[in-house]
Amino acid sequence: MACRSRGGFFPFLLIIADALRLRQTAPSYLPAASATIIPAGPLRAPLMSQDFHQAYPGIPLNPRTCGIWARLTRRPAECVHLPSEPHWAATLVPDTVYLRGKPAHSRRPVRPEVSLCRSCLLGWLRSELASHSAQVIALQPDPESFSQYFFLAQPDFDAAGVMPAVAEALESRFDDFSRPCELCHSPSTWLCIGRDEVSSLDDWGSIRSAPGHPRCAAHGAAWFCDFLERIPEVNLLYLNLPYDGAGAYLWF
């Protein structure tokens, strides 16, 4: 059963709640390097949020978790499977990126935050990732310790706090997309770098030199999702989607 937004007085309450919450955390203007990043403001975000069933068609969400009280208390909506599958959960915040410690939005309307089981997340994520046409460098995280897996557009590396040596190493790889996809020989837009090639984000030398696996968008998305699917237990607190051209998936 899909969650539905409600009209009348309740959206006004949500706007007030978001304003009170963001007043202490988000400035009215957030400088960002990316051309399409829209700063998160105290009143605009709830007005521009997309409805749950429009944002995530086909994902069965628990109505109790996307009602008025859940939104007032800032609890993300959950798919109906999470109570029976608590060992694998991911918080999807598709259109939010953190620059200089503050949230900014990469599109309008903003899709709301949701917590999903493995099946619901990956079923939705594959097509979304495959639709991104720009270059993506994906560094495979440590499956036993990562809690965030997030995309940063190249112009936002500095604002997001990426170390200069790491940023330079990543930027050097955007010229390394001449090889075709390993699987279908189509032009590659993903460079997938496994843990056996780069085990730490501090290893900027390996980031610069690792051969990686060139993939087209469809096979890059499959590589990304297949890795997540193989992990037996996950508590992923932050996952977003690619935005604004070329960039990289990093992890903590």
SSE arrangement:
Layout: H1 10-23, E1 38-39, H2 44-47, H3 52-55, H4 68-72, E2 77-78, E3 88-92, E4 96-99, E5 102-105, E6 114-116, H5 118-130, E7 136-139, E8 148-153, H6 164-173, E9 190-193, H7 204-209, E10 213-215, H8 217-230, E11 234-239, E12 247-251
Parallel strand pairs: 2-6, 3-11, 7-9, 7-12, 8-11
Antiparallel strand pairs: 1-5, 3-6, 4-5, 8-12, 9-10
Structure notes:
It is a single chain. By secondary structure, the chain is α/β, with parallel strands linked by helices. It has a domain at 126-251. Helix content is 28%, strand content 19%. It contains eight helices and twelve strands. It has a nine-stranded mixed beta sheet. A three-stranded antiparallel beta sheet has the order 1-5-4, with no helix packed on it. A hairpin with a 2-residue loop joins strand 4 (96-99) and strand 5 (102-105). Helix 5 packs antiparallel against helix 8. The longest helix has 14 residues, at 10-23. The chain is globular. The two termini are 34 Å apart. Mean pLDDT is 84; it is low at 1-32 and 41-48.
- Unreliable parts: 1-32, 41-48
Q: What would you call the shape?
A: globular
Q: Estimate percent helicity.
A: 25-40%
Q: Round the Cα radius of gyration to an integer and report it.
A: 18 Å
Compute the number of strand runs.
Answer: 12
Strand percentage lies at 15-25%
* Main sheet specs: 9 strands, mixed
**Topology order in helix (H) and strand (E) letters:** HEHHHEEEEEHEEHEHEHEE
Number of helices: 8
Q: Distance between the terminal alpha carbons, to the nearest Å? A: 34 Å
Main β-sheet, spatial strand arrangement? 2-6-3-11-8-12-7-9-10
Overall pLDDT metric = 84
The class by helix and strand makeup works out as alpha/beta
